[in-house]
Amino acid sequence: MQIQYIFELIGTLAFAISGALAGDERQKHDWFGITFIAFITAIGGGTIRDLFLNSYPLVWFKDMNIVYTIFLGIIMSRLFYKKFNQLKLTLMLFDTLGIALFTIVGLEKAQSLGANDFISVVMGMFTAVLGGVLRDTLINKTPTIFVQEIYATACIIGGVIYLILDDLQLDRNINFIISGSVIAVIRIIAVKFNLSLPKFYK
Amino acid sequence: MQIQYIFELIGTLAFAISGALAGDERQKHDWFGITFIAFITAIGGGTIRDLFLNSYPLVWFKDMNIVYTIFLGIIMSRLFYKKFNQLKLTLMLFDTLGIALFTIVGLEKAQSLGANDFISVVMGMFTAVLGGVLRDTLINKTPTIFVQEIYATACIIGGVIYLILDDLQLDRNINFIISGSVIAVIRIIAVKFNLSLPKFYK
Amino acid sequence: MQIQYIFELIGTLAFAISGALAGDERQKHDWFGITFIAFITAIGGGTIRDLFLNSYPLVWFKDMNIVYTIFLGIIMSRLFYKKFNQLKLTLMLFDTLGIALFTIVGLEKAQSLGANDFISVVMGMFTAVLGGVLRDTLINKTPTIFVQEIYATACIIGGVIYLILDDLQLDRNINFIISGSVIAVIRIIAVKFNLSLPKFYK
Prior knowledge:
The structure is a homotrimer. Chain A is mostly helical. Chain A has one domain (3-192). Helices cover 77% and strands 0% of the residues of chain A. Chain A contains eight helices and no strands. In chain A, helix 1 (3-24) crosses helix 5 (88-112) and helix 2 (31-53) packs across helix 4 (64-86). The longest helix of chain A has 25 residues, at 88-112. The N and C termini of chain A lie far apart (50 Å). Chain A binds chain B through residues 20, 23-24, 27-34, 36-37, 47, 51, 56-58, 60-61, 64, 67, 78, 81, 137-140, and chain B through 51-52, 54, 115-116, 118-119, 133, 137, 140, 142-143, 145-147, 151-153, 196-201. Chains A, B, C: The chain crosses the membrane at residues 6-24, 31-52, 64-81, 88-107, 113-134, 146-164, 176-195. Chains A, B, C: This is Trimeric intracellular cation channel family protein.
């Protein structure tokens, strides 16, 4: 089994938990609602990427491990949600792992399907962030990518670094780890020091 | 003409009416707005299913009867909306017929395109409920599947029963009627006795 | 280079600006957020059309001029947003140019892919208006097509006129200009005289 595949499952787990806990804030969602939101959060980004790239079958249609992983995340959320909510930091780290892994997974997939550099970086970022955009839209929140700390930007920077190192013929596995780490480190630093992008309009 | 096809048109009519009346609650939509919402409600679920399954052309692109049926639903809504709104029960029954029929139609289509059991049930449920999710998101309501009585769950149960009976080699038409009826009966009982799924978080 | 292609780029620029300025109303979006909304507004309609028509690769995946045009629109918005907001009329004219051009571009594309007349008109209208629907949904506004002056209706009328003139064997370029002008004129008259469609329910 490829190391990337394990990373993808870990990212899926992280996003499923983040989706299941997003419902918690309103306290009103039933079992179906939470399951639905967890799925959308975990597979939404990759699904939109695959629709855009005309890549079929969709990943979760052919790989039941993705589905089992999401159910695992839902069950973990139910069992440990009090802990998880105390441990906002743990959650943020999971989510950070998720976007770091999904960005590179999505970028590599777009590249392998012949997308140019710009589109590959965008598809990597979409894979990482669009599940969260759908989650927030469904629960009528302004998507966090619009109002929060550096998030999608970290994915874009990491994607660009991946492309540069790839151009320099760096080994793909090492590149994956370096670029993914860059994304994670940028996000963590941004959260820790409360950094954000400048507002577009002053 | 297949009996399933007639069922599909009846489901389409029911959803078009439900979409056209959803706009009514706010009283501000014009003719275009209502038409748009009625279409999204009636074809949204099937369209997303077909995009996910890579099944082209989309049903409403090749079959104008679907389109005529939706316009019929819009005209009926305009003529009878006072009656319809008095008769919430009638409407709920139409909607219940819609989800029962669309679930099995969607499940069978996914199966015929080679989807596994899990995905087939999910595609059936998506066909039934996603039009309503889009409708609610467009008019800025929290999608009813998240807050209401047993709804999507009835579709999932009916889908699973269809698969079990299909495995037992039951005739497809009889199976369609039995599984669809299960969905309808569960929904009606849930509404009548105000049953709902347990909240995910206590 | 075809005249239509230049029209498409002008329409893209107009929509990118309209998207970038939509974020302004809330004053809180950062650089990434504005860029994201500008892209969605400019390419959302065409992307949904292409997904529905199974037309790959998506336009913006293969033509970087579209991407450069959107970035140009974003930069122009930043430089001139005070001017733009004083000049609501200028903006409305840009947007009107956008829907006029995108309607005919989308209609012709659908036709060339074998869609029937009804679907071609709908695809033209979708190309013109769905980017704005996504923009409004993302920033939690009721989509303007539901509440404002004659907008999508102008696209539909222009599309129908295109089909009629096409049936009469009118030269395609002349037809493009006539039908597009009809859309623009209807919209401008509707704005000037504050015309709107009748409400669906009295």
